Amino acid sequence: MQGEESLQILVGTEEDSFPLAEIHACEVGVEPEASEQWDYVLVADRRTERIPKKMLRQQQFLGELRRKGFHFKVKKDQKRVFFGIRADDSIFDLYRTLLLEPEGPGSTVKTPTPVPATTRIRILNFILKKTTAAGETFENLVKDEVFETKFPLHKGEAELEKTWAQWRKMGHKQPIDQIRDYFGEKVALYFAWLGWYTYMLVPAALVGLGIFLIGFPLFESSQISKEICEAHTILLCPLGDHGRRFQRLSDTCTFAKLTHLFDNDWTVLFAIFMALWATVFLELWKRKRARVVLHWDLYGWDEDQEEMALQLINCPDYKLQLHRHSYLRSGIILALSLLMICFLIGMAHALVVYRVLAAALFSSSALPFLEEQVTTAMVVTGAVVHYVTIVIMTKVNKWVALKLCDFEKPRTFSERERKFTVWFFTLQFFAHFSSLIYIAFILGRINGHPGKSTRLAGLWKLEECHLSGCMTDLFLQMAIIMGLKQTLSNCVEYLSPWLAHRCRSRSALAPRDPELSDWQRNYRLNPVNPFSLFDEFMEMMIQYGFTTIFVAAFPLAPLLALFSNLVEIRLDAIKMVRLQRRLVPRKAKDIGTWLQVLETIGVLAVIANGMVIAFTSEFIPRVVYKYRYGPCRQGAHPAVDCLTGYVNHSLSIFYTKDFQDPVGIEGLENVTECRYRDYRNAHDYNFSEQFWFLLAIRLAFVILFEHVALCSKLIAAWFMPDVPQLVKNKVLEEKYRRLREKMWKSWTGAGPASSSRTSIRSTEV
Asked: Which ranges of 68-184 does DSSP label H, i.e. alpha helix?
């Protein structure tokens, strides 16, 4: 009968909406209070009032919340019903009892410190998620349109907007403590990490820019560039299948000079510098994180204990969920993940097929420019297609990672988040970098040679590296993908919520009730989801991968990342404060699994950059030629450049009479031989002695480079402890203080902590 009366009250007409709020407030024992007393709001469509079954389910859920100590306030507009929610103080007293230790002797009689708003919202959100009525959770009710949504209220954000969420604050220090007080520790640690990462990008960007600019003084003086630009009589073998023609080596003069900007002798030092930079960045971040967490008094905070406490607050009969492991389930997940990785690698092969078909299309084009710049056009369009593929596969990868996590059945939300991070990043890594790995280490190496080329499906010839070398392909691919991600992604990330908010606010009419107006304003903001902050982290991890993994081929990557992050920080701040509903604050003392992701990327960066220098760059062939085959092999000569003759040495000879399909090759009747980039014998086109010697040197260099870089990383990590001694000493002193207080209590039962030293000394005497 009581449920029926409550149902009749809520199915009121438009005229009694405000009396209804008062009746409902009195019904649950709450006087109408100021707006700041209501931390959370539930929203339902008013059309639900016409469906008694949905109204009953709504009342059952609200009744269950009321039983747990929640208070409500109802307000309506023309379309929706808003339920302001506040938890009883007894809930927060229980939280304080379970997790907050007394501050010292006599603390039981002190007035307890108020629970922060972030903690109130976090507890409220947890109970709302876990509450079930007739076996239905809030998510089930949203799916059945009993409720529309729920969100915590933005309150007091004006100060953050003034000091942080403005474009003119781009060069200012972030108010991390204010962010923590409003959005919680997890969001604050994200911005602290992002700010530190951006700050540390400054030296990396300056060094990378310096490496790039070093090539300009050598733009005209490089011996290799001179030989290429003066090679008017050397003809390169045709690369395409349609409209094939010979091309002078001197035609590649411009690209040869541009390649020297990022493929010079300083590239090796820059790669080693970036390996050390990644280590120093992480070690200094760990130290900064320790200081911040100590300042927040979270150094000894335990995430599992926090989650168990929230479970007990929600349900005193909660049974502990123990850790479990199933080899069968893990094996199935591993097999499915490997299958998905193979699919992503297959997508990279699909891009290869596109490039092959694009090369054939551009070669047969009626446009002379496309026919002359086939390789460049193919690389540029291939990079754009790769970017589009990344955008699509990001959504697919997120769905697959969620399904893998659900199948694995993690014990807690935190464990689920950690597993999801691992799976999603793994899939994203292959989606972003498979194509780059192909370009860096496979492109142009399985093509055969002129006269006997490897063909796709027996029809189309596999693509070749750019005429100026494979580093040009990798440089262009990196530049285009990073440029698109840093510009288009940031524009979409900001403009999409801005436009959505403008559309939602355009037809809104402000009611007379200021409290209802505030709730409506919060409702019109863009909704957030549990992945809102996760997506920001993932975006930065992928950027960090581009900044470090193939940085030897693109030394301007740290500079692009620096500019992007300066915009990203303010963009995220404006989005969170002005355009989105308030994120549910979460407690944390570190960035979690993302730290392991960063360390993994650092190791991959050492391996990848070593292989890029060894197998993609011309650094090893130049060094070997200088000291084994060049004019300086017996000793340096001041009047002779040691790389004289290198271009001729690095090009193999092919006799045009050995073409298997000479039809369509222009000027073939006037040419007896052409040159191509490889180390093969002229008589049988097998790999020459120089090829095998170079391969041995390349492998030795990779091993040496990785050992030197990894040892340098280990030494740097040892040299800079993860936790500063100041932090260790403060934690030690705090433990000592607590032990002394407990000992004093055990001896005397009461007394000030300050007198414990005197008493102990007198006892010892």
From this structure: 89-99, 117-130, 138-143, 158-163, 176-183
Assess whether pLDDT exceeds 90 at residue 202. yes
Written as one letter, the residue type at 435 is S
- How much is the pTM? 0.85
Name the residue range of residue 74's domain: 2-153
- 680 φ, ψ (degrees, to nearest 5): -130, 155
Establish if 739 belongs to a structural domain: yes
Please count the CA atoms within 13 angstroms of the CA of 79 that sit on its side-chain side: 6
Can you say whether the dihedral through the CA atoms of 574, 576, 582, 585 is positive or negative?
negative
66 assigned to some structural domain: yes
Final residue in a domain of this structure, among 133, 153, 173: 153
Candidates 472, 263, 445; CA nearest to 380 is: 472
C-alpha triplet 238, 243, 246: angle, nearest 5°:
30
Predicted confidence band of residue 329 (pLDDT cuts 50, 70, 90):
confident
Tokens matching residue 697 = 């040197």
Q: Which two tokens stand for residue 734?
A: 């705090």
Q: Give the ranges where 144-222 is alpha helix by DSSP (H).
A: 158-163, 176-183, 185-214
Q: Is residue 303 part of a domain?
A: no
What's the CA angle centered on 363, arms 362 and 365, to 5 degrees?
Answer: 60
372 pLDDT higher than 60: no
**Tens-digit pLDDT profile for residues 686-705:** 898 999 999 999 999 999 98
Give the whole-number percent of the chain exceeding pLDDT 90. 27
Domains contained in the chain, number: 2
**Which among 153, 172, 187 is the end of a domain?**
153
Is residue 753 one of the residues assigned to a domain?
yes
Strands across the sheet with 80-87, in order?
70-76, 80-87, 40-45, 149-152
Distances in Å between the Cα of 345 and the Cα atoms of 424, 435, 546 are 15, 8, 18
Q: Is the pLDDT score of 35 beyond 70?
A: no
Q: Are strands 70-76 and 673-677 parallel, antiparallel or unpaired?
A: unpaired
Q: What is the largest CA-CA distance in the chain?
A: 111
Per-residue pLDDT reduced to its tens digit, 264-280: 778 888 888 888 898 88
Axis-axis angle for helices 117-130, 303-314 (nearest 10):
60
In this predicted model, what pLDDT tens digit does every residue of 103-122 receive, in sequence order?
A: 433 344 445 677 888 999 99
Q: Compute the half-sphere exposure of residue 552: CA atoms within 13 Å on the CB side of its CA.
A: 32
Compute the 3-state secondary structure of the chain and give helix, strand, coil in percent, each to the nearest 5.
Answer: 65, 5, 30
Using the structure block, give the residue that is written with the tokens 């992701």. Answer: 597
Rounded CA separation 518/521 (Å): 5
Burial 417-431 (b: 16+ CB within 10 A, else e): bbbbbbbbbbbbbbb
Cα–Cα distance for residue pair 570/165, rounded to 1 Å: 6
Is residue 477 a contact partner of residue 386, using CB atoms and an 8 Å limit?
yes
Would you say 138 and 602 are in contact if contact means Cβ atoms under 8 Å apart?
A: no
